[in-house]
Design goal:
Chain A is built from 27 helices and 4 strands. By secondary structure, chain A is mostly helical. Helices cover 76% and strands 3% of the residues of chain B. The chains are: A mainly alpha, B mainly alpha.
Chain lengths: 651, 495
């Protein structure tokens, strides 16, 4: 079994190296064959491991010792349990779909082999992240996926916007990593090890350890650890205020927006917090912060999605908002629900992104929805799959998103933590907004008047099979993954010991109780027409229909009537400008001041060259005595002789 | 034991020196090719001769190994006394490895006075190995000062337009500090009752005042060398003016002598003063990490940027050293070795561009990836390493130092970890402006990608950076016993 675990990431790494280093030798066909083969094998093996884990085959062991520092071993190793096996299947399946789709999407791109190499490398890094059995390797994977994200956002390196976006993404993530690494340091300090199993088993004993801050406040170490780790999650999973990089990451090719910036990498933060559930459960302060941050992200990012005209950006803001939903679930101690939503979201969001990509190809790389419309009849498969994705996103039963989103809302409803009330209303109102913007997209792109130019219209056609097959394959889980998994994942023993919930926080069990124990998918669906979220979603869709199909003048009217709000949303609350002015310009200003004043003026000018000048000045004084006239020297000798003699006589 | 085993350190010192003198005999540039070949031959031979050090090294003990002992100046009990432990071994291997790299780099980048250039580097290699293996303080001092001469010449002769200012600044800055160190050695000679042996310095009891004064003297030598804020301003000037090979050796090896000095002299000879002043040293280190990183951000000249980045990274070394913990010193050592590879590689990358367009200005470039894809791949790899990406050797040192400083004081760790953001900022911004983007001018469009020697040396360095990043255990393992012992010496009182 160990050999299988090891080969799952390594086969992807191997394919990435071959496609990357020998891309010119093996050609395009060679590159996509080997990488798809690699990821395909990884996907099949992951499913095998998944089944094995379901039958009790849990593994925790080291592969090799990275280093031993001061007697503490730091190891590279795997923890294969329900949580990691679930993630492995999601990651490799979506990755496989994206690999296949890429053949069609990138077929004209000169960087074809490079692209395949990168996405396989990404799959390797993501697998190392989710399979890790310790914090160190988690951080390895964490940074490695960040690196690949950097490379892929900047894939079209001649575009100024792309290479700005990738640097921004890396740096904002580094702000998160700053917290994350300190969190890891705190774990090592408190527990003396970075091994999950050892840390989690001793965590309850450390729950009461406290420390004073310089202002005399007492902090629980557990709160500090969890908050620092969560800063990392905020970076990777793009939570407010570290969300600014994700919309810009859309500069990368669409397949990676689907794979990295929707389905997998951005959910690493969610996965990490779920993995750390034995720690987060010990700090209500931390859970409360997680809840509030998630709620803010879920609500305010969804609002921006309303006013975007770039098809990919709508989906991007939707991703931000949905990540907020997952974070809310984490804060409500509903870790299993968060992972459940992570899974369903991975399928329907990848589907939506790939659908958007299919539209973008058909539109000759036009991404402005105002220049689309009526595409339904040209692209029936894309339309149908996008409809399925939108219904899942909006949370309409029986599509996958319904179950996971409904469970999140219910979980928050049952949470008693500070901030839970606010979070509940945020996620509830988020439902209307989500339904509205997803159907706004659908109506603008696929229905209504055909607003494209003649040339584009003449060439409109459905995308090739390599594009549509992944769409269909992703549409299937977007329909069925919800009712298939809701019962075991949320109310069964699906996650076993991989997730720990303090009975006091157990909101998921509270949901089950409120349903009088009838916790089947069917019960949830039949309950839906009697619940608020369902009608909110329906009204969101109805509103979108009204605005974009019935009365197309309404959006303009609203925009001009509520101009202030509209402008604020278009400007994304001005956060980008603020960061640019304060952090980017501020550091440059500070750097310039330190350089010109500190280094050049004070250290070099005053001290280094100053002391050189001082020496020069002293010697110039001394030089004036050296006149070269014999009588001056004779006089000096006499004076010296006299003074010496007098000193000798009088002392 | 044969002659070779008994005198391996002497061979490593004198073989390249002899090689250097031999190269000088080839005379003017008519024999340039022969000079280059002799250079490569001798540096390779020295490197191969240094491998038995690693193989034969006993990592379970902190005792000095490969000892050579002979009297030199009997009147003052000055000895020719060599030996290495786990701290000096990796630094010696780094020296012999990088000299080979520099010799290969000289194939295409040096055109004038080739013989003298090659000779200077070979002689310097011997002297540097001498610094890392001398166990007699006067012998150490002789190597330490003698090493300045070839470097002074390298900057002064093959340097850029402002080379005279830079080389004199370099020479005076470093000389002033070393003289105070010599005075301390003489004082310690008297206290120990007539011994210049470094180990006898370790054992001699010293009062607090004496320790403090000696610490300051050592500080002025080693802080300038490494360099620490605020005595760092010679380094950017020296780097900008130095030829590529000079920059590589300067950044990769010479700076490490400061760190080595702190470990070999300051901590064990003046433990109480070191502990007393540790707060001050840590403060200076943290200033270096943040202040210098911000200065690096606004540089226009690639070499200056990398020079400032070096100073910032050396802040991690001094931070790790003055934490007085095993993990801190391990981190400092790994950081030194890793920085040797990475800074060397980055200066070589700048050299590759400079050889083609004769400009170090960031603004000259843009879109280099289009014309030099192979070079760009290496440059991005080394840039990521410079930003401390896990999987590269740089992460190991930074990780260990941050972990160690959190144990001492969480705020130290918090300030040090800012480097995660700033280090990435200045490195990636440079990459963005030089490597990526649209091609801005015809000269960049016509750039030729790496030739085979360039490819070879960058690939070797890339392998080293990745290997130690993925599996640093062998490196730490060699140092373990010596660092444990050093920590014991540094934490006992000598009063």
């Amino acid at each position: 079994m160990e050999a299988i675990y090891l080969s799952i990431p390594l086969v992807c790494l191997f394919a990435a190296i071959v496609a990357g280093l020998f891309g010119t030798h093996i050609g395009r066909r060679g590159a996509h064959t080997i990488t798809i083969l690699g990821v395909g094998i990884a996907c099949l093996l992951s499913i095998y491991v998944f089944v094995d884990v379901r039958n009790g085959g849990i593994f925790n062991g080291a592969v090799y010792t990275w280093l031993v520092s001061d007697g503490v071993p730091f190891e590279i190793g795997f923890l294969i349990d329900q949580l990691s096996a679930t993630m492995m299947v999601v990651v490799t399946f979506v990755s496989l779909m994206v690999h296949i789709y890429t053949i069609g999407y990138m077929h004209e791109d000169p960087g074809y082999q490079r692209f395949f190499s990168y996405i396989s490398l990404f799959t390797f890094a993501m697998l190392m992240l989710v399979m890790s059995n310790n914090f160190l390797q988690l951080f390895f994977g964490w940074e490695a996926v960040g690196l690949v994200s950097y490379l892929l956002i900047g894939f079209w390196y001649e575009r100024e916007t792309a290479i700005f976006a990738n640097m921004k993404a890396f740096l904002v993530n580094r702000v998160g990593d700053f917290g994350f690494l300190l969190g890891i340091a705190a774990v090592l300090f408190v527990f003396g090890t970075l091994d999950y199993a050892a840390v989690f088993s001793t965590a309850p004993g450390a729950a009461d350890m406290t420390v004073m801050d310089p202002f005399g406040n007492e902090w629980h170490w557990m709160t500090i650890i969890c908050l620092l780790l969560f800063v990392g999650a905020m970076g990777k999973s793009a939570q407010v205020p570290l969300h600014v990089w994700l919309p810009d990451s859309m500069e990368g090719p669409t397949p990676i927006s689907a794979l990295i910036h929707a389905a997998t990498m951005v959910t690493a933060g969610i996965f990490m917090v779920a993995r750390m559930s034995p720690l987060f459960e010990l700090s209500e302060t931390a859970l409360s912060v997680v809840l509030v941050i998630g709620a803010i992200t879920a609500f305010f990012m969804a609002l921006i999605g309303l006013v975007q005209n770039d098809i990919k950006r709508v989906v991007a803001y939707s991703t931000l908002s949905q990540l907020g939903y997952m974070t809310v679930a984490l804060g409500a101690s509903a870790y299993s629900v968060a992972i459940f939503h992570l899974g369903t979201h991975a399928f329907f969001k990848a589907l939506l992104f790939l659908g958007a990509g299919s539209v973008i190809i058909a539109m000759h790389h036009e991404q402005d929805m105002r220049k689309m419309g009526g595409l339904r009849k040209y692209m029936p498969i894309t339309y149908l799959t996008a409809l399925i994705g939108s219904l899942a996103l909006a949370g309409i039963p029986p599509f996958a998103g319904f179950f996971s989103k409904d469970a999140i809302i219910e979980a928050v409803h049952h949470s008693n933590l500070p901030g839970a009330g606010l979070a509940y209303y945020a996620v509830l109102s988020g439902v209307v907004i989500t339904a509205f913007y997803s159907f706004r997209l659908l109506f603008l792109v696929f229905h209504g008047k055909e607003r494209m130019d003649e040339h584009t219209r003449a060439h409109l056609h459905e995308s090739p099979r390599v594009v549509t097959v992944p769409l269909v394959l992703l549409a299937i889980p977007s329909i069925i993954a919800g009712w298939l998994f809701v019962e075991p994942m949320l109310f069964g023993e699906y996650f076993g010991s991989s997730i720990f919930v303090n009975p006091e926080h157990d909101t998921v069990s509270a949901i089950a109780e409120s349903m009088d124990g009838h916790v089947s998918a069917w019960a949830m669906m039949s309950h839906a027409p009697h619940s608020l979220p369902f009608w909110l979603a329906v009204s969101g869709i109805a509103l979108a229909y009204l605005f974009y199909m019935v009365a197309p003048g309404l959006p303009g009217l609203f925009a001009s009537t509520f101009g202030f709000i509209y402008n604020m949303l278009v400007k994304k609350y001005g956060i980008d400008e603020l960061y640019q002015a304060v952090f980017a310009k501020g550091s440059l200003l500070l750097g310039r001041a330190f350089w010109k004043i500190g280094d050049i003026a004070i250290i070099d000018g005053l001290f280094v060259n100053g002391s050189a000048r001082l020496v020069g000045w002293c010697s110039s004084i001394a030089r004036t005595v050296q006149t070269g006239f014999v009588y001056h020297y004779a006089f000096a000798m006499i004076v010296g002789l006299l003074s010496l003699m007098s000193w000798y006589l009088w002392s | 034991m044969g002659f070779f085993e008994q005198h391996i350190l002497s061979i490593l010192i004198w073989l390249p020196v002899v090689g250097g003198l031999l190269v000088l005999a080839t005379g003017d540039d008519r024999g340039a090719d022969i000079a280059r070949k002799i250079g490569i031959g001798f540096s390779l031979a020295t490197f191969v001769a240094s491998i038995p050090l690693y193989i034969g090294f006993n990592s379970s003990t902190s005792d000095m190994q490969f000892i050579e002992h002979a009297s030199w100046i009997d009147r003052y009990n000055i000895e020719y006394f060599l030996g290495i432990d786990g701290i000096s071994l990796p630094l010696i291997l780094l020296t012999t490895f990088l000299t080979v790299i520099v010799m290969f780099a000289a194939l295409s980048s040096v055109r004038e006075r080739v013989a003298q250039y090659v000779a200077a580097f070979l002689i310097m290699e011997g002297l540097m190995v001498g610094v890392f293996s001398a166990l007699d303080s006067i012998l150490f001092y002789v190597f330490w000062e003698a090493m300045l001469i070839p470097m002074y010449l390298i900057i002064g002769i093959w340097g850029g337009t402002n080379r005279v200012y830079a080389s004199i600044k370099f020479f005076l800055y470093t000389l002033l500090g070393s003289l105070l160190m010599l005075v301390s050695f003489i004082y310690l000679y008297n206290v120990t009752g007539g011994s210049f042996s470094i180990q006898s310095f370790h054992d001699v009891p010293l009062g607090m005042t004496a320790q403090t004064l000696i610490f300051i003297a050592f500080f002025s030598a080693f802080a300038v060398k490494i360099p620490m804020f605020p005595v760092h301003t010679w380094l950017p000037d020296a780097h900008v003016e130095a030829p590529t090979g000079g920059s590589v050796i300067l950044a990769a090896i010479m700076l490490k002598m400061g760190g080595y000095g702190f470990l070999r002299f300051s901590l064990p000879v003046t433990p109480d003063a070191s502990a007393n002043l540790a707060g001050f040293m840590i403060a200076l280190s943290l200033i270096a990490v943040v202040y210098i990183a911000l200065v690096a951000l606004v540089q226009f000249d690639m070499k200056k940027l990398i020079a400032y980045s070096s100073i910032s990274h050396m802040g991690f070394v001094t931070l790790g050293i003055f934490l007085f913990t095993v993990r801190g010193i391990e981190g400092a050592m790994v950081q030194m070795i890793s920085h040797g590879f990475i800074s060397g590689a980055l200066f070589l990358c700048v050299g590759v561009l400079y050889d083609r367009l004769h400009s170090r200005e960031i603004a000259t470039y843009g879109g280099v990836v289009k014309s030099m894809p192979m070079f760009a791949a290496f440059a991005v790899l080394f840039a990521m390493a410079n930003a401390g990406l896990p999987g590269t050797s740089a992460f190991v040192g930074e990780f260990l130092v941050i972990m160690a400083s959190f144990d001492v004081n969480a705020w130290y760790a918090a300030v040090a970890a800012i480097t995660l953001i700033l280090g990435a900022a200045y490195t990636l911004w440079m990459v963005k402006r030089v490597i990526f983007g649209k091609i801005t001018n015809a000269a960049v469009a016509d750039l030729k990608d790496l030739n085979s020697p360039e490819f070879l040396i960058l690939a070797l360095l890339a392998l080293a950076v990745l290997a130690f990043g993925i599996w640093p255990d062998p490196l730490i393992n060699v140092m373990q016993a010596s660092i444990d012992n050093l920590t014991v010496l540094a934490t006992r009182s000598k009063l």
